[in-house]
Amino acid sequence: MKSFFSILIIDFAFAFLLTGFRSIDQQRILHSFSEKYDFVVAKDGSGNFTTIQSAIEACKSFPYQRIRIFIKNGTYHEKIFIPSWNTKISLIGQSKDSTIISYDDYFKKINKGPNSTFYTATLLVQGNDFHAENLTIENTAGPVGQAIALAVEADRCSFEDCKLLGNQDTLYVAGENRRQYFSNCYIEGTTDFIFGEATVLFEKCVIKCKADSYITAASTPENVAYGFVFKNCEIEADSAVDNVYLGRPWRKFAKTVFINCKMDGFINPKGWSNWNQTDNYKTVFYAEYNSASKQTNNEERVSWSHQLTEAQAEKYTLKNIFSGSESWDPENENNL
User: Fold this and answer.
1) pLDDT for the residue numbered 299
2) Can you give the CATH number for the domain in which 279 is found?
3) 169 is catalytic
4) Catalytic residue among 169, 212, 238, 264
5) In which domain, by residue range, is 7 found?
6) How far apart are CA 28 and CA 320, in angstroms?
7) Quick one: average pLDDT of 129-150?
């Protein structure tokens, strides 16, 4: 009997020491992360928080310095809100394929009347100077109507190496004179899956069409020089898709331009559609330059779209697009 209790005591002591060592290791990891990140989020409890929203709620309002939040791999089933007072926040995922923010709200589920779409976002950003990288942001509601994965309603927001997954209305980019930048991102959807009134530059992104429908639905304000600009992007489609329009105007002054983008025969030869056959086509600005395609004949584009000259295309620089009341260069932004 004595031997039995001795074994129990030894086992208990070993387990205690092992737990202690693990705790020390976790502390060392947190310490190393603290040198680069302000908070660490981990579902397994090895960080400062187990949810992303709780980390955001711990952030100082209107900080002078950027707040960096590192998110360890895992699927975070959360509806995330970055309020206007939480500016200068960076969400950095461990890897874009394995660090996933996921939710499943959609129009009929929200059931708040005609504006229900805008309540469906998995991640809603209202704080200026937001940055995200190495993340997947998804709305998993499926093909059930409007269901936003990411909604950005703030200025000077950038996204790098992110995946945005959804169906109808995947990405809502909003706010008059708001500027947003997407670099090396993957964005997929069905109908109007990139929409809104913000000035947005998409560089080296993959745009994946999952249905015969419309890629963009810009609502650019009349007095804004640039709407959606796609540069050096690849437009792809599922194998069964063969009738996609580059865009249709959500509002009458919509502006959308594709420059040096690859696209194939699944793009409708007309290129662009006039929403409900209104007079919007008279005031929109839809244009392309050097659309690389095996089957697309730009001569079949609708008469009210434009083929830019080389000189005109050269004006679509990051500096010009993001000039605004004060210049903004997301590629040289300090301390992202």
Assistant:
1) 80
2) 2.160.20.10
3) yes
4) 169
5) 1-35
6) 45
7) 98
